[in-house]
Amino acid sequence: MTTTSPPPSPLRSRRRAGIAALSIGALIWSALAGAASPAQAAGTVPTDGLIAQYAFSQTSGSTVPNTATGSGRVGDATVRNGTDALWNGDSLTFIGGAKSSTTANWVELPASILSGKNSATITTEVAIDASMKSAFNFLWNIGNNSNGSYYFTSVRDSPRTAITTSSAGGEANARSSQALDANRWYSLTSVIDGDADTISFYVDGVLVSTGRTTLSPASITDQSLNAIGRSPWPDPFFQGKVSTFRVYDRALQASEVKAVSDTDAALHASSFQSSVQTILNSVNPLTIEVEKPRLPDYNGAVTWSSTDPNLVVGSDGRLATAAVPRAGEPDKTGTVTATVQVRGVSATKTVSFRLKAPAASSDTWGNPIVQTIYTADPAPLVVGDTMYVYTGHDEDNSNTYVMNDWHVYSSTDMVNWTDRGSPLSVSTFAWARSDAWASQTIERNGKFYWYVTVTEAATGQRAIGVAVGDTPVGPFRDAIGKPLISRSEIDPTVFIDDDGQAYLYQGNPNLWWVKLNEDMISLGSTPEQIPLTHEGFGTKASDPTKTAYQEGPWVYKRNGMYYNVFAASCCSEYIAYSTSPTPTGPWTFRGTIMPSQGRSFTNHPGIVDFKGKSYFFYHNGALPGGSGYGRSVSIEEFTYNADGTIPTINMTTAGVSQIAPFDPYTRQEAETISWESGVEVSPTTGGGLHVSSIDNGDYIRVRGADFGSGASSFTARVGTTGVGGTIEVRLGSRTGTLVGTCTVPAGTAGSTQWVDIDCPVAGATGKTDVFFVFRGGSGELFTFDSWQFAAPPALTVSATAETRCVAGKVVLVPQVGNGESVAIAADVTSSFGTKKFESVAAGKTVSAAFSTRRGSIDAGTVTVQASVTKDGKTLTRSVDAAYAAKSCG
């Protein structure tokens, strides 16, 4: 995974979030463009620790004076390759250009500006040119002319700040969740807090991301070429405008960052009115089909309010509760108020909404395969009859990579996935401190080795660790008590060749390989870097000097060919691959497998064969609230081309087909889910998992349950901690045929004290999807541990059929035997007549005689339909008895 973008919504709002489409209505300006709010008043810029303040407000010259007055102030800045025509009176225009340009202007800052400093804050008032949204660039850089050690901010894709002492692979990032609009003024602030070991990024005075790092400005020991608009890489020069640039030798507090942003906003207040109007014009009517929608925020500029009880907006102005009609009920309509705010200028507009009954579309979805949490970086593993997938876990409410543990899911049919919990976390590795990033698990000699990416506590750099367990789901333990590889590399992938030699590959942005010893926990060779040539790994479209390889390798062997599938050309990434005749190259680039899709700027591949089919695993941001920091694992089936190449694969919501029957007559874990809405999965005291957070209207779908001739009852194991409710058993969809309803009483027993409830079902036959729909009052209803259907008990009944000759005619004689302890009723049906036995005594046999009135008959069958009421339940059974052809003369 790469370090790159949007923040997920809270868990329940994510899973219930809907796509809201937003209408033109009454427009009211609440702040005139030219009117500065009190927060924008001059004189609020903090001066403590201010060592450089450059106001690009002059109209000529090449020297930009430092107007800071503190004792630690540094010298003036110098415009390189500048002309007076580039001064605007309130800003300096940067014209951009290739790194080789001798006319592209940039600003040189004083050398050693932050040398020896433990903390720092750098804030810039900037408007970017549209070209910067896709081109690599450094808005500013603290460092030198080499690309090994630097501290910077970039505005490509979505803005970020980072620091490194080991080039790109060691960058500790804090990145915004949204891209910047071109030609709009922004305040971008980077804060490094050496005491807290954090790097933070603010946009317009609002904290958007915080990352962990033990690096500080003092770590950049060579600060001989500090600059605005110039990169130490071969990136083009920055293009846009800069209005102010400030440097502090301390970490500003959030309120201080906001004060700087508000002050600088006043410089261009009139420009924000048009920005507000543009956003306001794009706000459309809302159409909502879910109970807990997250209303669109238009890149953070829009909040909502409502007085309509059918659509209640929460305190954050975006999460809402909708009184969505049930299937068959009419739509509900009303209005809400959208407020657009850009740096102190705001306007409101009345917007219509329509609440619709839930669409049935998600009832048929198979992707993403997990909906209870965000999952990322899938690593599939086949063990016998079961597919396991090991995933990372993007935490909710994150605006960067907050990943603390890994999860495991398993399936035997590829559509119903059992949550196996989190058997491994960062805390398993005593030497690691954070960042449960991409991983892979492999089996050897009956043990399972889980290779993971973490951040090493001692160095603050990425490292590869390895855990070992005796089963695919653990428990796992740190195998060696230290990093297997400490070189600021990420994304391990492992495979064992036909000769038994195991190989480990990893890396971003470089690609390395090393042999593993047979113990799988020690290196068998010196790590070697794979040459990233254009012939081997393609060309990056946005920078032809670089190859397409970015990260996330997945290496395997098939039919004598070695495949290296990887995430390409960040960002947004697509999936590409290369092949080789050996595990170490030379590699030949083969092209794209999966284009850049799916609302996540990263992707991560995994490919395996299972039960005669080939599967491609990946992640995207498809769940409501999903993004580059809230990803979800999905699967597609594919077929290799005849020459072994891989076809183009697109993301779908349908996913893959079921490849094995699902037995509803054996005990199933409630956390075996094909699709769900609203619920969560939680650990059970004493071990195991259960389904929790069950509210009215939530549901679980299980695909392709094979009921055969029919089920008669349903049993659920539940925890009666909540207000109680019912479990509706429906077929085909969440509003499909109701075949049974189980009542769950209210109680206070605790979710880890379980009771079994059961109820009759009727009409559950054949192969169909089952939906457990939860109904009740407000609040959590109950918890759900497991379930099982039961078929009707079989009657012990027998049937035979004989033929005889009477007066030259064939007589058919069927017999019914009752093996039950009570009398039964039996109906006998044949081609020559029927007979109804009202009562066949226990243990007795009765017979009937049907005259065929024919001298000969063909072979045929007699059917006996038996029934009895036993223990309050009606049992039935149908038995056929065959007879041979017969001739009487």
UniProtKB/TrEMBL annotation:
Residues 1-41 form the signal peptide. Coiled coil: none annotated. Residues 666-790 form the CBM6 domain. GO terms for molecular function: carbohydrate binding; hydrolase activity, hydrolyzing O-glycosyl compounds. PROSITE patterns: CBM6. The record marks D491 as: Important for catalytic activity, responsible for pKa modulation of the active site Glu and correct orientation of both the proton donor and substrate. Keywords: Carbohydrate metabolism, Disulfide bond, Glycosidase, Hydrolase, Polysaccharide degradation, Signal, Xylan degradation. The keyword Cytoplasm does not apply. One of its GO terms (biological process) is xylan catabolic process. PANTHER family: ENDO-1,4-BETA-XYLANASE, PUTATIVE (AFU_ORTHOLOGUE AFUA_2G04480)-RELATED. Belongs to the glycosyl hydrolase 43 family. This is CBM6 domain-containing protein. It comes from Microbacterium dextranolyticum.
